[in-house]
Amino acid sequence: MNEEEGDARETALSPIVKTVRPVLAATMTLGSLAWAADLYRAAGMSLYTEQFMAAMLALAICLVYLHFPAKRGEKRTNLPWYDAVFAALGFANGAYVAIVYPDLIDRLIGIA
Length: 112
What we know:
This protein is mainly alpha-helical and about 110 residues long.
C-alpha cells in the first residue's frame, strides 16, 4: 500500500472513529504507564491486577472493533452498526469486570 492509499483510507473514516480510536489508544498507553509507575497507589487507590487487566481488555476490544473491518481488505466510509454494537458490548463487558471484581472475589471466597 502506498502513501496515497493510506491517506485516502484515513480520510474515508467516520468522524466518530477518527475521534474515539486515538483516545482509546492514548488511554491504554497512559494507563499502562501509570500502572507501571504505581501512580494509582500514590493516588490512594487499591486495585487488583485483574481489575487493571479487565480495564485494558475493555479498551482493547473496543479499539479492535473500531479499527479493523469485518472482512479483510474491505474499504468502509462509516462504522457498520454491528461493529459499533460489538465495540460497545466488549467495552461494557470489560468495564463491568473491572468495576465489580472486588465484590466478585469476596463472593467467591465467601467473605461477604
